[in-house]
Amino acid sequence: MRAGREALKLRVDLHVHSVNSGDSRVSLEVAVERCRTIGLDGLAITDHDFLTQIPGSLSVDDLIVFSGMEVSARGAHILAFDIGEEVPPGLSIAETVSRIHELGGIAVIAHPYSVFRTWVNAGEIRRAGFDAVEVANAYQFPYGWMLDKNRGLAEELGLPQTGGSDAHIPATIGRAYTVFEVETGDVDGMLSALRRGRVEAAGSGVTLAERLRLGV
Predict the structure, then answer these.
(1) For residue 3, is it within any domain?
(2) Of 4, 46, 82, which is closest to residue 164 (Cα–Cα)?
(3) pTM
(4) Residue 41 gets which letter from DSSP?
(5) Sign of the C-alpha dihedral, residues 30, 32, 33, 38?
(6) How many helices (H) and strands (E) in the chain?
(7) Of the candidates 204, 175, 180, 205, which has an alpha carbon nearest to the alpha carbon of residue 81?
(8) What is the CATH number of the domain that holds 141?
(9) Mean pLDDT of 4-29
(10) Could you tell me the CA-to-CA distances from 50 to 6, 41, 53, 69, 162 in Å, in that order?
């Protein structure tokens, strides 16, 4: 950061699913409105194995809205950002990360340790060359224990730590999120901060009562 220039802090949900994921009830318009209502600075639409295009009508001055994807690799789910085309599912973890990097993108291991969803092979993760670890995922359960385990992996690998809600319903958007320290309040500034590790995970998890009430 240049001397005399104060850093901007942005709160961005890096893991939101839209109706294009098939198992989500969140439209792009509802996601943006929810983001604005709860006071987030932005969100990333990360649909399952699909790169959703953000229409110009949702390009608003008060929010950063951009697209990534959650790639279903063999043995892990991987968030891909700053890519211009889809990364195919079904590749190995290392092949998926390599493909993301070939596209000039950023590869983040999603919810590496998560009961009932993914439980990664730590050795394979170490060798893959990830850029960051999603340590806070609102749907990981039990949240606190998984947070500590995911954070331990990130610290072992020396990688930045991110957070995202993994929301499939509007009510949980923004429950977990990433705090960015940026020089410019736009997508480029945010991605630059992620590449340089100027991020931290924040937020909380979906409670057991909410899981029972919402069916998640």
Answers:
(1) no
(2) 46
(3) 0.92
(4) S
(5) positive
(6) 6, 11
(7) 180
(8) 3.20.20.140
(9) 90
(10) 37, 24, 9, 6, 21
| Tally of structural domains, the chain | 1
- Evaluate the omega torsion of the peptide bond into residue 112 and state whether it is cis, within 30 degrees of 0: no
Note the pLDDT tens digit of each residue in 34-81: 999 999 999 999 999 999 999 877 766 789 999 999 999 998 999 999
∠ at Cα 4 (2, 9), nearest 5°?
Answer: 75
Parallel/antiparallel/unpaired status of strands 42-48 and 76-81: unpaired
Q: Does residue 47 contact residue 17 with C-beta atoms inside 8 Å?
A: yes
* The pLDDT of residue 187: 93
Half-sphere CA count of 28, side-chain side, radius 13 A: 19
The SS3 assignment for 116 reads: coil
CA angle 37, 39, 40 (to 5 degrees): 115
In this predicted model, what pLDDT tens digit does every residue of 125-136 receive, in sequence order?
889 999 999 999
Task: Specify burial of residue 147 (Cβ count, 10 A radius: 0-12, 13-18, 19+).
Answer: buried
What domain range is 109 assigned to? 8-214
Calpha distance 163→148 (Å, rounded): 13
Distance CA 154, CA 105 (A): 19
Structural domain includes residue 1: no
